[in-house]
């Protein structure tokens, strides 16, 4: 496993992945068809298909290439299954969770264990578990209360153990422990007090640490005996685009993605003794990403560039033909997820925008890419639509890599040219230090099927496009970052995709904040907004960030505003939607997880209370068993039922009847049920609770 210094505040992370550099997709020109009025909207796609459990997901191949694993429903809950590679008749469940399901699993490098992480109701206090494949025993390797486990590394040189970060001694710092996978016994390797990250070499020896400094820069320290000494610094402007990937095969140097002295992150090798830095690959347009290492030699052999979609490139000359064959078989999004120890088989997630994602196996010897499984076969034959990539210019001439999706009734040929204007939803990604990418998403297909165009914008502060673009967002929450969204909306209107007064805004985490900004700072730009776990008060957001983000406080302060200075406090107040609730004149739906450790329930509570005090309509949905985003499919089903009825009433799209969407959901509608047409609490759901007033 590779060590990363960057921290992201987002619901989900996007991975990326040849022989030619990616090309921009030209911006569409308005296109009007005389027959557009005759196009009939497709049948509604059942929410259960779009938001229910997939048939199989998160496919992995064992390190020796003999076995496979994946997550799949067991009595309606996502569990882990294992069997012989390619033989689904041999597959059996190795877990039997009955709660929120298992979100992440992976193999031990010796192939004897399958490990997974799990928290309690979204509190993000992750526990690490190991399943002994021979005995079937499941052991909680980190059975410590109120503790967050972070897997740091495994190594072929040290089978049967893993290095795990644990913050049970001090919630601010993750000490590094060597954990025995059989017994769970742990041995302290390094006290992490003051260190935001600990980095081990290929023998699992602690070698490096990262310390945040008051000016927001990072100090990279090398361990010497019981002490540490600085070997280099990462300036604040580079902290989100520079981080250590791992050690070389001789454990004498490190591979990094490094933007120092340049704009985009290049793949470099740094000799720790001589401090000589060698640039291996770089690109002037986007950051190098998804570096592929040989599992045995630890040398980089390939990488990806991802502007519109990921394209792979070979580093090792012997891999040129192999990578060329891989690229020839990929046309959409893709992610390399795992490799066998002999590097023969790669597990690849392939992601066309208008069909179910497929897990595939790439044979690096033959060059063949074959299906492992389709994640959601029920999507086959349904009226799904294509995503299109484009680059939109901001008002200050920045390139905003964006994606738009048109409903069939607006673009029956699916060529990316709108035959008529339709209502649109601007879907804003979380983070903000993340990015939107190309590929299938259930929420996008849901919106398009309900009659909306969907626009996703990589606004400034999004990652992957160089440090200048990331840092252009510093101090610009509710400022230039929001201007980028407005500029993209203008582009969509100019293209004939939508009209000025038929655009809603929706998003989670930072995207939820952007929704609140849209309805407060630009109240006439959007018809309505859907905020999912979005902060409303930047002062209280920073006061309540989890203690284990201590080393990243300066990153937040410099990006958002420093609460320890008068100037920073003023900026936080100025850019907090809570302080501008009087400006809201459009419908707002807020959804929150009660156990969210990042954006606490108070962020939603306080803006709802302020709106109620001023008699401003708002609908507030709470899930007592969820955190930063919703994991249980029953909860997603109920939320999207409310959201589509809400959007239909304020932005003119279609809505599937509520039906049994609330069955077995923990949904609580705390306020504003009366503002959502078509939603009833009287459906007999025993777990449904409402205190709507």
Automatic annotation (TrEMBL):
GO biological process: proteolysis
InterPro entries per record: 6-blade_b-propeller_TolB-like (IPR011042), AB_hydrolase_fold (IPR029058), Peptidase_S9_cat (IPR001375)
Molecular function GO terms recorded: serine-type endopeptidase activity
Ranges of residues in domain Peptidase S9 prolyl oligopeptidase catalytic: 441-651
Source domain of life: Bacteria
Keywords annotated in UniProt: Hydrolase, Signal
Pfam families: Peptidase_S9
Keyword Signal in record: yes
Span of the signal peptide: 1-16
Gene3D superfamilies according to UniProt: alpha/beta hydrolase (3.40.50.1820), TolB, C-terminal domain (2.120.10.30)
UniProt protein name: S9 family peptidase
Biological classification of the source: Bacteria, Pseudomonadati, Pseudomonadota, Gammaproteobacteria, Alteromonadales
């Amino acid at each position: 496993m590779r060590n990363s210094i960057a921290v992201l505040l987002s619901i989900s992370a996007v991975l990326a992945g040849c022989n030619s550099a990616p090309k921009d997709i030209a911006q569409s020109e308005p296109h009007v068809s005389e027959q557009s009025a005759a196009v009939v909207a497709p049948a509604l796609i059942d929410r259960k298909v779009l938001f229910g459990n997939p048939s199989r997901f998160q496919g992995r191949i064992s390190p020796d290439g003999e076995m496979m694993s994946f997550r799949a429903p067991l009595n309606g809950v996502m569990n882990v299954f294992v069997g012989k590679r390619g033989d689904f008749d041999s597959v059996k469940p190795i877990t039997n969770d009955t709660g929120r399901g298992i979100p992440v699993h992976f193999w031990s490098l010796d192939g004897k264990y399958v490990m997974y992480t799990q928290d309690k109701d979204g509190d993000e206090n992750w526990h690490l578990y190991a399943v002994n494949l021979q005995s079937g025993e499941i052991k909680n390797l980190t059975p410590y209360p109120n503790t967050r486990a972070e897997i740091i590394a495994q190594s072929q040189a040290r089978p049967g153990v893993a290095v795990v970060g644990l913050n049970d001694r001090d919630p601010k710092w993750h000490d590094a422990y060597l954990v025995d996978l059989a017994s769970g016994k742990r041995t302290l390797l390094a006290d992490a007090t003051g260190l935001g990250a600990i980095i081990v070499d290929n023998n699992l020896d602690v070698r490096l640490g990262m310390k945040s400094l008051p000016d927001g820069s990072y100090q990279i320290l090398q361990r010497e005996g019981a002490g540490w000494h600085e070997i280099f610094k990462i300036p604040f402007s580079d902290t989100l685009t520079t981080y250590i990937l791992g050690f070389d095969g001789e454990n004498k140097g490190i591979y990094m993605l490094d933007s120092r002295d340049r704009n985009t992150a290049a793949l470099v090798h740094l000799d720790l003794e001589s401090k000589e830095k060698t640039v291996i690959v770089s690109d002037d347009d986007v950051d190098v990403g998804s570096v592929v290492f040989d599992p045995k030699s630890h040398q980089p052999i390939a990488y990806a560039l991802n502007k519109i979609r990921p394209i792979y490139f070979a580093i090792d000359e012997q891999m040129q033909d192999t990578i060329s064959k891989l690229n020839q078989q990929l046309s959409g999004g893709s992610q390399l997820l795992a490799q066998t120890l002999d590097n023969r088989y790669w597990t690849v997630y392939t992601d066309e925008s208008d069909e179910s994602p497929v897990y595939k196996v790439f044979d690096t010897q033959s060059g063949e890419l074959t299906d492992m499984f389709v994640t959601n076969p029920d999507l086959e034959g349904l009226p799904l639509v294509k995503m299109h990539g484009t680059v939109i210019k901001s008002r200050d001439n920045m390139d905003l890599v964006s994606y738009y999706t048109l409903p069939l009734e607006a673009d029956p040929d699916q060529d990316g040219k709108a035959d008529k204007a339709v209502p649109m939803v601007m879907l804003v990604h979380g983070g903000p230090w993340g990015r939107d990418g190309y590929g299938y998403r259930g929420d996008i297909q849901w919106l398009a099927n309900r009659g909306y165009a969907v626009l996703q914008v990589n606004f400034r502060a999004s990652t992957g496009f160089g440090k200048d673009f990331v840092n252009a967002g510093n101090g610009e929450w509710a400022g230039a970052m929001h201007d980028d969204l407005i500029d993209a909306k203008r582009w969509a209107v100019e293209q004939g995709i939508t009209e000025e007064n038929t655009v809603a805004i929706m998003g989670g985490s930072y995207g939820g904040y952007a929704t609140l900004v849209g309805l407060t700072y630009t109240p006439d730009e959007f018809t309505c907004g859907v905020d999912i776990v979005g902060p409303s008060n930047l002062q209280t957001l920073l006061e309540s960030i989890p203690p284990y983000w201590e080393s990243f406080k300066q990153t937040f302060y410099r990006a958002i505003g420093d609460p320890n200075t008068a100037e920073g406090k003023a900026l936080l107040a100025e850019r907090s939607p809570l302080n501008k609730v009087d400006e809201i004149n459009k419908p707002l739906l807020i959804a929150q997880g009660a156990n969210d450790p990042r954006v606490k329930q108070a962020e939603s509570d306080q803006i709802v209370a302020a709106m109620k005090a001023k008699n401003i309509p708002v609908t507030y949905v709470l899930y007592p068993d969820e955190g930063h985003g919703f994991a249980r499919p029953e909860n997603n089903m109920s939320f999207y039922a409310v959201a589509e009825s809400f959007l239909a009433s304020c932005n003119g799209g279609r809505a599937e009847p509520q039906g049994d969407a609330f069955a077995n959901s923990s949904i609580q509608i705390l306020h504003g049920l009366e503002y959502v047409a078509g939603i009833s609490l009287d459906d007999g759901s025993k777990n449904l609770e409402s205190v709507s007033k």
